[in-house]
Structure formats: C-alpha cells, structure tokens
C-alpha cells in the first residue's frame, strides 16, 4: 500500500505523541493535528489496514515496525529541514511550515545531500 502525504503526517504525529505520552489515542492525534475526530478515525482505519499501526482494545495506537520506520524518516526530515532553513535566516515558524511541505516530496538523494552539507558546515 502506497502511503499518501497525509498518512505520513499521521504517522509522524503518532510518533511525536508517543515520545511525549505513555499511550496515544485517536483523540490525542485529533487534538495534536487540529483535525476532526471523524477524519482521524478514518485515517486510523486506513493506517491499520495498511499495517502501519495497531490499535488495541483500549484504543491505544502503536506504530508497527514499518510505521515507525516511516515516522522516524519523516520526523528526521522535518527537524533537519527546519534547522537548515533557520540557519539560512528563515524565521522558525515559516521554516517549520515549509519543512512540513518539503519533507514529503524531497528525494532521499537530495535529503542526504542537504544532511551532508549541514554536517560539513556545522563543524
């Protein structure tokens, strides 16, 4: 199953929430993303069907191995691109918003080049 940008956003949000909370529920995701509960419920169903997450009988959401891999990848892109744009002089809010758009469409090759550039000039 190919994951759309919105699916990546949900996985990233679940990942971030899981670093802050012991348990993540659909309601937490809805509040974090400022989305309606029905929208989150639909997305959770699709992510579950795609085997990116599991939901136990209490409604607690966990990332599967494949879901965690994608979530970490998107989160790394988000944080690295935000930092990169801030270092270029972009204000933090705009940098975070732009990074959120770029993180889903940038190729692995281009992202690695940016990471290498950042690493090279951060020494």
Name the descriptors:
123 residues; elongated; 2 domains; mainly alpha; two-stranded antiparallel ribbon; 69% helix; single chain; Diphtheria Toxin Repressor, domain 2; Arc Repressor Mutant, subunit A
Write up this protein:
With 123 residues, this protein is mostly helical. The chain has six helices and two strands. Strands 1-2 form a two-stranded antiparallel sheet. A hairpin with a 5-residue loop joins β1 and β2. α1 crosses α3, α1 (5-20) crosses α4 and α4 packs across α5. The termini are far apart. The relative contact order is 0.13. The mean pLDDT is 93.
Percent in strands: under 5%
Number of domains: 2
Query: Which architecture of the largest domain per CATH?
Result: Orthogonal Bundle
- Global shape: elongated
Helix content: 55-70%
CATH level-four homologous superfamily name of the largest domain: Winged helix-like DNA-binding domain superfamily/Winged helix DNA-binding domain
Strands across the major sheet, in which order?
1-2
**How many β-strands, per DSSP?**
2
CATH-defined fold name of the largest domain: Arc Repressor Mutant, subunit A
Name the helix and strand elements from N-terminus to C-terminus, one letter apiece. Answer: HHHEEHHH
What's the main sheet like?
Answer: 2 strands, antiparallel
Number of helices: 6
Radius of gyration: 15 Å
Class from helix and strand fractions: mainly alpha
Level-1 CATH class name of the largest domain:
Mainly Alpha
Instruction: Compute the average pLDDT.
Output: 93
Low-pLDDT runs? none
Distance between the termini: 40 Å
């Amino acid at each position: 199953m190919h994951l759309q940008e919105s699916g990546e956003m949900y996985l990233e949000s679940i990942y971030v929430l899981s670093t802050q909370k012991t348990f993540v529920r659909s309601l937490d995701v809805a509040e974090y993303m400022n989305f309606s509960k029905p929208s989150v419920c639909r997305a959770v169903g699709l992510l579950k069907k795609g085997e990116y997450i599991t939901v136990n009988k209490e409604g607690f959401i966990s990332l599967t191995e494949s879901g965690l891999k994608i979530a970490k990848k998107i989160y790394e892109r988000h944080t690295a691109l935000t930092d990169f744009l801030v270092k270029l002089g972009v204000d933090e809010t705009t940098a975070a918003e732009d990074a959120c758009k770029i993180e889903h469409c940038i190729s692995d090759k281009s992202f690695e080049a940016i990471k290498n550039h950042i690493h090279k000039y951060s020494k």
